[in-house]
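Work Package 4 report. The design task specified in the project plan requires that, given a folded chain encoded as structure tokens, an amino acid be chosen for each position. We show below one input record used in the internal validation round.
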């Protein structure tokens, strides 16, 4: 799989903070309820912290109480890439930025949330950067 934006590992390491690098480039997970956007209700667009691609918007963000920012749909279907993830003895679907391949989080479905898709894109705050809408 190749991405529009590909950089050597050393470059990602230099451009991102250690915490950002761990999540975005090594598929880490930030601690629950600690991320800066967990409860954010600001209107705006969430872009990839690694490459700046627009990924999610506040319109699709909902309160899942799971401890991470949750969205029921990406901004555009092709903005994210979904990959089967069998690590940690679980079968999950990993969500990556389709432009740079950075790890964002996982998507779960059929959990019964009252959202239009019944999907929960469980995304690390540190993978995103919120640009508030101009009012
Ligand atoms: Zn990206």
């Amino acid at each position: 799989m190749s991405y529009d934006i590909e950089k050597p590992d050393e470059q990602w390491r230099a451009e991102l903070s250690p915490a950002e690098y761990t999540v975005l480039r090594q598929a880490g997970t930030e601690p629950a309820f600690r991320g800066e956007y967990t409860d954010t209700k600001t209107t705006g667009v969430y872009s990839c912290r690694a490459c700046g691609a627009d990924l999610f918007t506040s319109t699709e963000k909902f309160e899942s109480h799971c401890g991470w920012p949750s969205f029921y749909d990406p901004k555009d279907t092709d903005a994210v890439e979904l990959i089967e993830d069998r690590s940690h003895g679980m079968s999950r679907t990993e969500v990556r930025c389709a432009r740079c391949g950075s790890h964002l989080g996982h998507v779960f479905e059929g959990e019964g949330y009252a959202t239009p898709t019944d999907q929960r894109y469980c995304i690390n705050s540190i993978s995103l950067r919120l640009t508030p809408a101009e009012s």
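The two ends are 39 Å apart (CA to CA). Validation will be extended to a larger panel in the next phase.
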